[in-house]
Amino acid sequence: MKLGIVGLPNIGKTTIFNALTSAGVDIVNSPFSTRNPNIGVVNVPDKRLDELEKMYKPKKKTFAKIEFYDIAGLAKGASKGEGLGNKFLSSIREAQAIIHVVRCFDDDNVIHLEGSVDPTRDVENLNLELIFSDLEILERRMERTLKLVHSGDKNAKTERDLQVTIKSHLESGKPIRNLEVTDEEKKIVDSYSLITSKPIIYVANISEEALIEGEEDDYVKALKEYAEEEQSQVVVISGKIEEEISQLSMDEKMEILSEYGLSEPGLNKLITASYDLLGLISFLTSGKDEVRAWTITKGTKAQQAAGKIHSDIERGFIRAEVIPYDKLMEVKSESIAKEKGYYRLEGKEYVVQDGDIIHFRFNV
Question: How far is Cα of residue 242 from the mean position of the Cα atoms in its chain?
Fold first, then answer.
């Protein structure tokens, strides 16, 4: 699963990417310094694995992972190829979701293309370019659909009506992710691969001073108001601080976080929110060899979840022995948990829940 980190030039995208991935990508104080996407694989923080590690003392601990793409900065006219527009749009179409970094700090030493910091304006400028790009794609689809309508295709008439609704929504300046559609209509919308249909998280990139003060300034408030209107989430972090502490040992990191009054890095919240944005959950496996989180989409059934471990387990699936993480942690002993009846045997139709610890029984 890939998440594209996007934003206008010089707003801290690459700084945040470096903090996430420890990639060490050079930061250049000039527009379009990121030309080709930087790619990083990131562990999804999961304290449940830490607790299972204490209990089982395994040889190995393996976190779930997601990919982040640091994509070239976008500027006005990108939908018409300005700046690195075509490269930006091509890269973002490959992502399943969008992390939109928004500059919420003043710094005379960091260039801003518009000459001033204005989160709402910046978000609207970028979103407008994405809307223009989607309209161009949609209009081409509408031309093809209209030909089918004229040929007498009944299904094409229904799709054409939906396309007219989508076009009107985009022309009003709204992203497709906010358009209410039925499940059947959503399948059609998804087939168009429109950028503004992708789920999004806004990241308010604040200054160190704002982090120390601990109160939301006008920049963050404005961004949250905008995001609330389109029912999107905002994660507030200081990219500069996050990059600095990402290079420290765990003890040093916790000491610095404590000084800022934080219990965990802001990036942990971003990673967790990103994982949830993609509709992902984790089931767990545990033992002396390894404790591990396995990534599945919400609603995955037990037999398909087994296939995440190995196709043979899915093919020869018999039963899933399941215990919720919280139930195991209540007694911190497999034997006591079994005595209390906390383990259940589930069939292939069982819908796996986040935090289920599962042992699959199979025969091939």
Answer: 18
Tens-digit pLDDT profile for residues 258-285 = 888 888 888 899 999 999 999 999 999 9
* Section 78-86 average pLDDT: 50
pTM of the model as a whole: 0.85
Instruction: Report the distance separating Cα 289 and Cα 199, nearest Å.
Output: 37
Structure tokens belonging to residue 29: 């104080």
How far apart CA 32 and CA 289 sit, in angstroms, is 46
Neighbour-count burial of 92, counting CB atoms closer than 10 A to its CB (0-12 exposed, 13-18 middle, 19+ buried): buried
Residues in the chain, total: 364
* Maximum separation of any 2 CA atoms in the chain, in Å: 70
Of the candidates 266, 30, 11, the residue with the CA atom closest to the CA atom of residue 121: 11
Tokens of 337: 């948990």
In our burial notation (b when 16+ CB lie closer than 10 A, e otherwise), range 44-66 reads: bbbebbeebeeebebeebeebeb
d(CA 323, CA 341): 9
3-state secondary structure the chain: CEEEEECCCCCCHHHHHHHHHCCCCCCCCCCCCCCCCEEEEEECCCHHHHHHHHHHCCCEEECCEEEEEECCCCCCCHHHCCCCHHHHHHHHHCCCEEEEEEECCCCCCCCCCCCCCCHHHHHHHHHHHHHHHHHHHHHHHHHHHHHHHHCCCHHHHHHHHHHHHHHHHHHCCCCHHHCCCCHHHHHHHHHCCCHHHCCEEEEEECCHHHHHHCCCCHHHHHHHHHHHHCCCEEEEECHHHHHHHCCCCHHHHHHHHHHCCCCCCHHHHHHHHHHHHCCEEEEEECCCCEEEEEEEECCCEHHHHHHHHCHHHHHCEEEEEEEEHHHHHHHCCHHHHHHCCCCEEECCCCECCCCEEEEEEECC
- The residues with which 350 forms a beta bridge, in sequence order, are none
Q: Between vectors from CA 20 to CA 15 and to CA 24, what angle results, nearest 5°?
A: 55
Q: What is the pLDDT of residues 100-159, one digit of tens each?
A: 999 998 887 776 777 788 999 999 988 998 999 899 999 999 999 999 999 988 889 999
